[in-house]
Automatic annotation (TrEMBL):
It comes from the Eukaryota. The lineage of its organism: Eukaryota, Metazoa, Chordata, Craniata, Vertebrata. Residues 12-42, 106-133, 164-226 form a coiled coil. It comes from Oncorhynchus mykiss (Rainbow trout). This is Laminin domain-containing protein. Keywords: Coiled coil.
Length: 239
């Protein structure tokens, strides 16, 4: 009998504990229900249109990022190709400058130096010829004065036929010599102009080569900066 009473008491105590657990569970369920209702109310208060727009903008942004990334890859490929072409051209220029053309260029410089020296000598000779021409002109003027005097004497009847022929011959000789000296001077001046033109052309070609190399280096630097900017922009967009 006592054993039965103890069993009933034990069952009652266990029942009370189970009842307490049920009450706790019921309270927990009520709390969860209230939280769910609050979340539902907040969800209803959200503007679905703005949410959809935000999602759409996000998707569009992702598409643009993907497109920009693709363009960056294409630009990178084009830039790599251009850089390789420029490097190849620079290598060709460097090879040409360091190859057999260098001795040829040095030889051309020596030839020009020789021609310049010849030019100087010819200029000195031309000056000497010019001085001689001036002297000849002075002589010619004196001869002309004599011829004029002879003509005057012929007009006045103070000379004979022999003197007249001598004066004509001397005048002819003076005229031929003056024309010869003038032609020599013109030829030498033309030679000087030709040599100066060749020297200027050679200097201009060297300057053009230097400008071409500088321009290629600037192109390489600009492409490198563009690639760096593209990569930095992509990193900033994706970070």
């Amino acid at each position: 009998m006592i054993q039965n009473i103890r069993g009933v008491l034990t069952n009652f105590i266990e029942f009370k504990e189970d009842l307490k657990k049920l009450k706790d569970q019921a309270k927990t369920a009520q709390d969860l229900l209230e939280k769910a209702q609050a979340i539902r109310d907040r969800t209803r208060a959200i503007d679905v249109t703005d949410l959809k727009k935000t999602i759409t903008d996000t998707e569009n942004t992702q598409d643009r990022v993907a497109q920009d990334l693709e363009k960056a890859k294409e630009s990178h490929g084009v830039a790599d190709k251009m850089i390789k072409e420029i490097e190849k051209k620079l290598n060709n220029i460097e090879t040409n400058l360091n190859s057999t053309r260098t001795p040829e260029m040095l030889e051309e410089i020596e030839v020009l130096k020789s021609k310049t020296e010849m030019n100087r000598e010819q200029a000195e000779q031309a000056k000497a010829d010019a001085d001689a021409a001036i002297g000849a002109t002075t002589d010619a003027e004196k001869g002309l004065d004599k011829v004029t005097a002879l003509f005057d004497r012929l007009k006045t009847g103070n000379t004979n036929q022999t003197n007249n022929e001598a004066a004509n011959e001397r005048l002819k000789n003076i005229t031929v010599e003056a024309e010869k000296v003038a032609k020599d001077i013109r030829d030498k001046i033309q030679q000087i102009d030709d040599l100066e033109k060749k020297i200027q052309d050679f200097i201009r070609n060297k300057e053009d080569k230097a400008k071409e190399v500088a321009m290629l280096l600037e192109m390489v630097e600009a492409l490198q900066k563009e690639i760096t900017a593209r990569v930095d922009g992509y990193i900033n967009c994706t970070s």
